[in-house]
Amino acid sequence: MRDRKGSGALKLLCGMILLGFMAFVAFVGFDEQQYGSLYDVDLGLDLAGGVSITYQAVGDASGEAMSDAKEKLRKRAESYSTEASVYMEGDKRICVDIPNVKDANKVLEELGKPGALKFVDEDGQEVLEPKHIKTAEGRARRSEGVSSNAIEYVVLLTLTPEGQEVFAKVTKANIGHQIAIVFDGEVVSAPRVNSEINSEFAEITGLESLETAENLATTIRIGAIPVELEEVRSDVVGAKLGEKAIHTSLLAGAIGLAIVILLMIILYRVPGIAASLALLCYVTMMIVVLAGFDITLTLPGIAGMILSIGMAVDANVIIFARIREEIGAGTTVRTAINNGFSKALSAIVDGNVTTLISAIILNILGSGTVRGFAQTLAVGIILSMVSSLGITRLFLTGFYDLGIKGKGAYGETKKTTKLNIIGKRPIFFSISGAAVALSIGLLIFNATQGDMMNYSIDFVGGTSSTIDLPKDMTLEEIQTQIEPKIATAIGDSEGNIASNKVVDSSQIIVRTKTLSLEERDAMTKMLKADFGVAEDGIQMQNISATIGQEMRRDALVSVAVATLCMLLYIWFRFRNLTFAAASVFTLLHDVFVVILAYLLFNWTVGTTFIACMLTIVGYSINATIVIFDRVRENLSLDSHKRYSLKEIFNLSINQTMTRSIYTSLTTLIMVIVLAIVGVTAIREFALPLIVGVLCGGFSSVCIAGSLAHLMMRKKPADTEPQK
Questions:
Q1: Which residues 6+ apart lie within 8 Å of 172 measured at CB?
Q2: What is the 8-class DSSP label of residue 722?
Q3: d(Cα 700, Cα 492) in Å, to the nearest integer?
Q4: Helix, strand or coil for residue 293?
Q5: Burial 97-134 (b: 16+ CB within 10 A, else e)
């Protein structure tokens, strides 16, 4: 007995040490500032504030030219912030993210200018133009001097025919003098002319290292690139709005987590305490992993992390439901704990893998904030499995070994509900069929009138501005006072401006045509002068119509590819096409019902729509898999065919009913708190998810099983056996 208690105390001690260590690393850290990993997490522009802009090459551009253009933009971006990042998006686009800049319009104005490379003589006169140089290459070679082992570093210039002629005149006139190479106003090199050069090639010698030669060659190429760049997408986020987004999102996460922990303890007693401690470990591990792997945290990323907390409870709910069933069947508590974890394993793995597939597809096909959401969701799924299958078990067996062994501390399931879900199939099918038919009908009707849905500028192009007014104004005041002045500032005589007021906030959202830099600057100055709006209280998103069409297409591709991959996985795991087919129809049902909500409430459809729909698809399939896993188990146990197929399906649905209700409830808590406390962008994500979670819970219980039963019953080989 003492050994058992000692083992339990050791397990609990190890668990608490793990929790304490992860909390210390996350919130305190080992450095002198004692900031912890929480302060090392990279924040996206929507949280830190700053500028994000995407350029596209006009006309044809070689890979080398695009690489040089990227390098030019990187050098310019780093002059504004050392934390700037520049990366390629496909073959023809370059993305630039610059956090924590104050004068965003100035950055937008200066960043995309053509390269300001000049060759200047000692009198300050420009003597050569970048267009006269074909290429520049840094090299290391053996010196032609006395020592054959000496290495010298040079830049080899290849001139155009016109450049050769100009260079000959310039070098002849400047023998013995320096010609400075100036890039963006800074002298990067000032070689001396030793003789007239009348050749296709010229050399800059006397450089101290190969790296110096290569850097100088890159700078010269950058100034000479024949690439014209145009802005196709940009975001300007004020630091004030970013800080507010962080505050409200963290508040939502803390409130939601506290409610979920309280609910778990009330519902599951000792197992609930174990799950709550494991959940705290999960949150701290999430923070450490985000910082350790340099995953940029965006606003949708925070939503994904908070959502994953709600979904992380699902694995514990499945395990605890199994434990209660085992205790109710008469096994000892210790055996029930072991059996609960082992029997729940397949449903947990299958459910999490399908959601992980959704996150991976989003990360591959998505971009920007959508990718940030996918990365945090993927990390959350992996850590949730570690938490539920490992850490929860450590705490739970620790409590048991310490002496908490009474069945009352763990609960037991003595009776399973006996709802005739399969028998009510006509009712459920009628309700779902009507909702899907209405959704499709509205889509078709809207298509005849214009756009199928209320697309945001993400999908159609334009400029969206979120403005934090110093004082609250009614929608009528906004339309009569602010909109006319915006129209004047941007030169919109037709008045194609739409304004929305953010609920319970002094913020407004104004959508206009795609604005030029000058128009955006004029609008910003007007808002500051006439309405006292702070510069860091304005967020602008600018997207061209071409980009909008591409994003709409990519959204459909993302959902289609993710759905196909998940269904292939289900087919592989269950070895039964019926289950995969039933899952297809169920998730299509959920998608159309959520789309119906978008149509009825006129919610805007943008980039968060992609993440939202794939989350709902993953959640729906996850819930369906739990039921199908139990059907598969009960079919294998019923080797003597004592029960009809209908009875097995009804039994399986009823056995998992508690899990379906509790999981939907805990996930809903997190999402509802997001919708209440979160900022506008978070609310646009959370509201459809509420519909999706409710619909997913309904469809997994009332639709999926009934569809699978109907299809299996129609097969000659699967006719219902007699009792």
A1: 196
A2: P
A3: 50
A4: coil
A5: bbbbbeebbebbeebbeebebbbbbeeeeebbebebbe
d(CA 139, CA 209): 9
Query: Helix or strand or coil: residue 498?
Result: strand
| Rounded-to-integer distance, Cα 164 and Cα 114, Å | 23
Write the CA distances from 454 to 32, 597, 643, integer angstroms.
Answer: 51, 12, 50
| HEC string for 304-363 | HHHHHHHHHHHHHHHHHHHHHHHHHCCCCHHHHHHHHHHHHHHHHHHHHHHHHHHHHHHH
Tell me which residue has tokens 């959920």: 590
Cα gap 138→214, rounded to integer Å: 4
Give residue 113's pLDDT: 61
Q: How crowded is residue 436: how many other Cβ atoms within 10 Å of its Cβ?
A: 19
**Crossing angle between the packed helical segments 299-328 and 369-386, to the nearest 10 degrees:** 30
- As given in the structure block, the two tokens for residue 108 are 């937008």
Residues of the chain with pLDDT under 50: 716-723
Cβ of 393: how many Cβ atoms within 10 Å?
20
Going along the chain from its start, the domains and CATH numbers come out as: 2-40+248-409 (1.20.1640.10), 117-224 (3.30.1360.200), 422-440+549-718 (1.20.1640.10), 462-543 (3.30.70)
pTM here is 0.74
SS3 content of the chain, % helix, strand, coil (to 5): 65, 15, 20
Contact criterion met (CB below 8 Å) for 277 and 383: no
What amino acid is encoded at 423 in this protein? Answer: G
Is the separation of the CB atoms in 628 and 579 below 8 Å? yes
d(CA 184, CA 116): 5
Question: Which stretch of DSSP H or E encloses residue 57?
Answer: strand 50-58
Q: What pLDDT sits at residue 420?
A: 93
**Rounded to whole angstroms, how far apart are CA atoms 621 and 353?**
10
Alpha-carbon distance of 674 to 685, in angstroms, equals 9
Provide the 3-class DSSP secondary structure of residue 273: helix
Count CA atoms within 13 Å of residue 430 on its CB side: 4
* Per-residue model confidence (pLDDT) at position 716: 46
Closest CA to 529 of 558, 486, 568, 500: 486
Per the CB < 8 A criterion, the answer to whether 455 and 553 are in contact is: no
* pLDDT score at 239: 61
